[in-house]
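EI: anyone free to look at a 275-residue chain?
SC: sure, send it
EI:
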Amino acid sequence: MAERQGTPTRSTKGFNWYWRLLATGFAFSAFGLGGLLMAITIFPAMMIILQDRAKRRRYAQFVICRGFRLFTWMLDVTGVAVAETENIERLRSARGALIIANHPTLLDVVMILAQMDRCQCVVKHELFRNPFMAGVVRAAGFIRNNDDPENLISQARDHLATGACILIFPEGTRTPSRRKLGQLQRGVANIAIETQVDLIPVVVHCNHDTLKKGVPWYRIPPSKIRFRLVVDAPLSFGDIADPTLSRARQARLLTRIIKDYYLDRLTHDFAGNRT
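SC: here you go
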């Protein structure tokens, strides 16, 4: 029976593969338990010490980013995954911008936030019911992505007005296996049209087709997962928008522009070679 591409056969699985399988399982368990511990210790203490809700959210985001940085260090030293960055200062110095990124794996948000001190995020509404992550996303004041687009736009507008950056994945979920990009949602376009802020594209490259939508965590690739996060120059809303169009047509146009942008950037694989 033919093996799946990128998966070692039984005869080629050695100590390194089994070690990374064990380390991956341990890492994801530690991630969930870490989120739960923060939710029942650090964040309740913040509620007592910090009465100002906005300040409490900023500190919570700082703790989360530092926690993610520790987690990515653990992934690196255990041989599971490592991230390289380009132009990361564009993220760290940004204010009041939409940070957009393609979403090839389960670890993208962790890898990006680990490079920052704090950031607002749009997250799946399911996380607010997840016993391990609900306390984390609530403490940070992350924006729930549910079926109410007007509420999403309103919350995003309020956060951007304070100078906060918002990380959002235009695909809305992870890229399906063996595809460069999934179908884009119009949430990013609608927020951009309403707020007219700059968009900062982050192009996420990964050397393996792993941890994608429909790919279980235990399907370990044949070697260490290597990410490359490339932060491109900001896209000015005024340069890519057409104010003569209706809002619906502007949203379709902007979504298509973002899709074409990422497909063009992702025509180069991790090593910089055309795929």
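EI: Residues 16-265 form a domain with the Glycerol-3-phosphate (1)-acyltransferase fold (CATH 3.40.1130).
SC: 👍
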